[in-house]
Amino acid sequence: MKRSTIDIWVGVFVAIGFGGLLFLALKVGNLASFSTAEAYQLQAKFANIGGLKVRAAIKSAGVVVGRVSNVTFDNESYEAIVTFNVDAQYKFPRDTSAKILTSGLLGEQYVGLEAGGDGVMLKQGDRLRLTQSAVVLENLISQFLFNKAAEGKDTKDGK
Amino acid sequence: MPLLLCMAEPSLLTAVRQGLERLGQAAAAKIWRLGFAARFFVAILLNSGTALRRFRLIIREIYFAGVQSLVIILVSGLFVGMVLGLQGYDTLQRYGSSEALGVLVALSLVRELGPVIAGLLFASRAGSAITAEIGLMKATEQIAAMEMMAVDPIARVVAPRFWAGVISMPLLAALFSAMGIFGGYLVGVQLIGVDEGSFWSQMQSSVDVREDILNGVIKSLVFGVAVSWIAVFEGYDAPPTAEGVSGATTRTVVTSSLAILALDFVLTALMFTGGNGK
Amino acid sequence: MASVPIVEIDKVSFGYDAARPVLHGVSLRIEPGSVVGIMGQSGCGKTTLLRIIAGWLKASAGATRVLGESVHELDSEGIYALRRKMGMLFQFGALFTDMTVFDNVAFQMREHTDLPPDLVHDLVMMKLEAVGLRGAAQRMPSELSGGMARRVALARAVALDPRLMLYDEPFTGLDPISLGVIARLIRTLNDSLGQTSIVVSHDVEECFGIVDYVYFVSAGRIVAEGKPDAMRRSGEAFVKQFVRGETDGPIPFHYPAPGYEADLAAAAVHG
Ligand SMILES: Nc1ncnc2c1ncn2[C@@H]1O[C@H](COP(=O)(O)OP(=O)(O)OP(=O)(O)O)[C@@H](O)[C@H]1O
Ligand SMILES: [Mg+2]
Question: What is the DSSP letter of C77?
């Protein structure tokens, strides 16, 4: 009776111990990472990328569909060129737009793709035409203050 | 002039000589004990046949060493991970790289904090208990009674506890790291809002299974051997009195903690600097 | 008696450290089937003598033959083999505190034999019944009184029906009823199982009641020996003093020490 409960506990302990090891190997380490998965490369130009970094997520409808692979600066248009890989299983129309978004209030930034209605799909090396730059916090704050000021004037006028 | 000084202060001279003598004796005693401990280690290995054949003996001790350390390991792991999440985010976001939080949390835990803190906790939770138990068995003549019954206490009492410690330690360290990473995830992703995808994917791309995780497991295995060895030796070598056992218990915690930290330095130097050079 | 002795000790000397010898040239013979008492005041070396017989301590001089083996010449494996034929009741019981009473008694059966669990169970119950503690089989040693623990230790010591039983102070700390039970048990076990027993004790009455022969030890020497009746009638000063529990006589009560006045020097200075 007492013995078998000890056996059960030790069994549980060893099982979750190996579970921990497995978690480290598969989820934390790269043993199961699908780096070999097929992907195609796209580019997008942004006026301002904010804090976007290499390896940031590419999301569409909230699903991670790829990763940023490179960020460079274009000497002619003075814009940022973001190169990213999209998993081959995901297809997007040619008039898809890219936005730089922020996860959470202070979280890091990612590229959001919003599919368009074109029948032709994007393929390796294509460039997205419609882009929207990162929302820069300073701009946001000044906009907010401006709105507040305008509102205050309105209510004062109303009285 | 120095000669004159010596002649002028004979009491000082004898005091210095006595001090040196005592130091020499203490060092000799330590070395003698180390030699004894090494012989004891060999004796454990030679007498492990019974314990490994009758695995039930080890299972029982895994219950006491491993299962009963589980709660403290899991809770500490969670908190250490959460603190790493907060502190790591605070530091990383200054450099605008908060998405590297997962990497920071995982690497710190898997390479260093997991094995080391789990080892320290294991030494104070299970190691001291092993020492106290064996020491008390000796003080109450249980070890002697066993020898009288023609049962070798090294095979029957010491070896199962030793192997249970060696088996439990890597599992506890892995659980500590896993729990810590979960804690970092809770704080970083759920609370602060670091992107979940980059938290995990950055982690996966930067943490190497062989370089980081396997080396961490090897570290924890080495710590397990060291702590278990120290614990069973101190217990077996304890003077059979109340203060003898309590002194041995303290020595187990102190010696194992120092051993863990020193071994950690040596192993880190061997594993990680060597690996980077390649 | 012409039979081969079970234990034969010839001029054995021993000291835990070279400076203070505990035994000086002790010789004794123990015949098969007998119960032999070893008596003497506290600290005279009785436990030490038992340990030499059990191969625990190696005598510095002299020969020790037990069950036909020369103990002082055996390696550790030989000593373990010999000990399987011996049982020892420790002065303080020495039960395994992490096992139940049942497991304590079953310990040697499980370690040394391949008996099926059913048989082990029945044997353990028989041993516990003999010491009157069958009802306590599932208790832990910490839940037993000192006397009960001693009885369990006795059941454990005879678990494998050893040929030679060594009892170290089996009577101390027992109430009169348990004491009588244990004393009779020692005798009965000895006779029914054909054992030979050595009983170390201070308790003159109980000891004389069950032993066939007594050795008196004082300061590491055998000072008297004989059958209990003869000892009772003995005119030897030592035996008379010990048997009657008198304060005055050749037995010193004090552990050897330098002059009392020397130790009280501080008081003298103050005075
Ligand atoms: N482990 C030891 N180390 C050093 N000296 C010891 C040790 N054990 C016993 N002695 C000494 O040996 C002497 C004999 O001890 P022993 O235990 O044989 O006495 P005893 O006759 O069994 O006494 P008691 O009736 O009190 O049990 C004592 O003077 C004791 O001081
Ligand atoms: Mg004694």
Answer: H
Give kind and range of the element (H or E) at residue C184.
helix C176-192
Amino acid at B58: I
Tens place of pLDDT per residue across chain A (159 aa): 466 788 888 999 999 999 999 888 888 776 654 445 678 899 999 988 887 877 678 888 888 788 888 889 999 989 999 999 888 888 899 889 999 888 766 566 889 999 888 888 888 888 888 888 877 777 778 888 888 888 776 665 544
> φ, ψ for residue A46 (rounded to 5)?
-130, 145
User: What are the tokens at B89?
Assistant: 């985010």
| Alpha carbon distance B243, B267 (integer Å) | 35
Nearest CA to ligand 1 atom 24: C42
Q: A68-77: long-range contacts (C-beta < 8 A, 24 or more apart)?
A: A68/A111, A69/A41, A74/A45, A77/A45
Residue nearest atom 1 in ligand 1 by C-alpha distance: C16
Residue contact C56–B141, C-beta within 8 A: no
Q: What is the ipTM of this complex?
A: 0.80
**Structural domains of chain C ordered from first start:** 7-227 (3.40.50.300)
One-character DSSP codes across A110-139: EEEEE----SSBP-TT-EE-EEEPPPPHHH
Q: Tell which atom from ligand 1 comes closest to the C-alpha of C220.
A: 14
Give the chain B residue nearest C154 (alpha carbons). Answer: B145
Ligand 1 interacting residues, C-beta cut-off 6 A:
C 16, 22, 40, 42-48
User: Do the Cβ atoms of B131 and B244 come closer than 8 Å?
Assistant: no
Domain assignments of chain B as residue spans, ordered by start = 55-268
